[in-house]
Specification:
Number of strands: 2
Oligomer: single chain
Distance between the termini: 54 Å
Strand order of the largest sheet: 1-2
Structural class: alpha+beta
Helix content: 40-55%
Length: 135
C-alpha cells in the first residue's frame, strides 16, 4: 500500500480516536472489552481495505487540495468579492502492486486470526473480572 497520511486512512481507523474517547464513558467491563478488541479492529480494517484493493485491482487514496472560492466581503465600506482558500478532500485511484497486496492480505489474514483469538481470550478474562456477583 502507498504511504498514508491521516486523510487516507480507512474510515474505521479514522474513527478509532472517537471510539477511545467514548471508552472514557464506558463501564470498566466495556473499557476492558474495547481495549481487548483494539488490535483486532485495526487489523480487520487493514484487511478489509487491502481485500477491496485486490478485488478492484487498484487502491484508493484520499488527497486534500487547496482551492480558492469567491465570497462576499466588505472592503472600504464597499461590497466586493474576496478570495478565500478552503481545503477539498477527494478520493483518487492509485496503482498498486497486485502481487504484493496479495502477500500483504495473506499476512493480514494470519495476523487478524491471531489477534481475534487473543481478543477472545482477553474478553473472556474481562467478563470474569467484572462479572456481577450472583445473589
Amino acid at each position: 500500500m502507498p504511504a498514508t497520511n491521516r486523510a487516507s486512512l480507512p474510515a474505521t481507523l479514522r474513527a478509532l480516536p472517537m471510539c477511545l474517547a467514548l471508552a472514557a464513558c464506558a463501564t470498566p467491563e466495556q473499557s476492558c472489552i474495547l481495549s481487548a478488541q483494539q488490535d483486532y479492529r485495526v487489523l480487520d480494517a487493514l484487511y478489509q481495505e487491502t481485500a477491496a484493493n485486490v478485488e478492484r485491482g487498484y487502491g484508493l487514496e484520499r488527497v486534500e487540495r487547496t482551492r480558492i472560492r469567491l465570497v462576499p466581503c466588505d472592503l472600504k465600506n464597499k461590497r466586493e468579492f474576496c478570495q478565500e482558500e478552503y481545503i477539498e478532500a477527494e478520493t483518487v485511484p492509485v496503482t498498486i502492486d497486485l502481487e504484493e497486496e496479495k502477500r500483504i492480505l495473506a499476512q493480514l489474514q494470519v495476523s487478524r486470526a491471531k489477534a481475534g483469538r487473543k481478543a477472545d481470550r482477553a474478553i473472556a478474562e474481562c467478563k470474569r473480572t467484572f462479572a456481577e456477583p450472583e445473589t
